[in-house]
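PROTEIN DATA CARD
Card holder: AAA+ ATPase domain-containing protein
Chain length: 208
Origin: Paragonimus skrjabini miyazakii
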Amino acid sequence: ASGTGKTTLVSRLFQLLSKHVSVTGFITEEVRPTQTSSRRSSRIGFDVVLLSTLDERRATLARCAGHETTALPAHAPRVGQYVVQLSSFESLALPCLQTTLNSLSDRNASGPSVCIIDEIGKMELCSPSFCAKIEKLIDLISTVSKQSSRAVLVATVPSARRPDGRRGIPLVDSLCSRPNVCLFEVTFSNRDDILQKVYQAVMDRLLL
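Structure generated from the sequence above:
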């Protein structure tokens, strides 16, 4: 759920995993206006930030109306109060995913790898190109894992809110229902303890 600290957890997981394996991906960070007031300012949007020890590139994912970072078409997708800036988001997310796809497709690539996506949610899935690459990545990781257990996808997704335990987002529900998926629910109370469990689950899957 929002505000539980899952992005912080994912960032810490990246730091742990990158000591042992190749890690690619991105996280989503809240954006708030810079204010000198001691009161916490209201959230105006989200940025995606590349997970890298060398390059912390970021791009706009979404902004509240009036806070857009570039001119947008009238038909720009909206999720709640936020306008999704597809071109900006795709400029970071798509090359990141393509790098991972290229690596997994390379039979000569050495060593295990992890792809971290924070998150696969309604805003990100406004991009058909992102959806297509995520589906291709999931299929490729499943194929590669059957052969060598050398690839793992770590993704944050919206929490299940429906009585049937589903999220109402077809791609996410499909991903969560796969037999080789391990689900962890991050809450405010368990976010510190669960880091080691997720880390160990990834390392076990990679046979490390």
